[in-house]
Predict the structure.
Amino acid sequence: MTYSKVYIRIAAAGDFDRRFLLDFQKELQNSMWDNGIKATCIFSNSGMVEVDHIPSNAYTPHIGKYNTHSLFSYGQKKREDSIKKLGSANALIKVLVIVDVEIFKQGFTGTLFGEADVGENVAIISTAPLENHFKSSFLIKERALKEAMHELGHTLGLDHCKNPGCAMNISKDTYDIDEKKKKYCIDCLNILFQGHR
């Protein structure tokens, strides 16, 4: 498959600083291009940074976190909106939902940094578990970018990888995230581009 025209709609929900989001958008697009994926990252069809409220139906009181099932629905609505505005149901449009709250998936134990299904169109990441005792927005953004590359990699057809440093490595904690790069290894790139770029 070739990735000459990929749109990534960034759907931000929560209490985000717009400067953080603009930097994130620019660096995510650069990281995609560095991996040979010609992606255009957008926040809205108008080009403006949109920050929504987190869907209220996503909150699960007895767990105290937000369920990814409802966030996937939110992301799918953003994708349908982008398809209408971009004028093509055939365009490769992926959605990255970014939230600043703790998320959970039914049946999963541990810290959930994000979620996406292989080959599907919506990925979710949370910045809440990425914080550090220095409160460094740079470090949070770097970790969020690595997790975005990981979850978007799933939407592009990649599964987990065991090669050191690859963005598709599993992250059980922030130390694992810090060990990764914002790049896919040669094996993952060969899967993406079927051996030729």
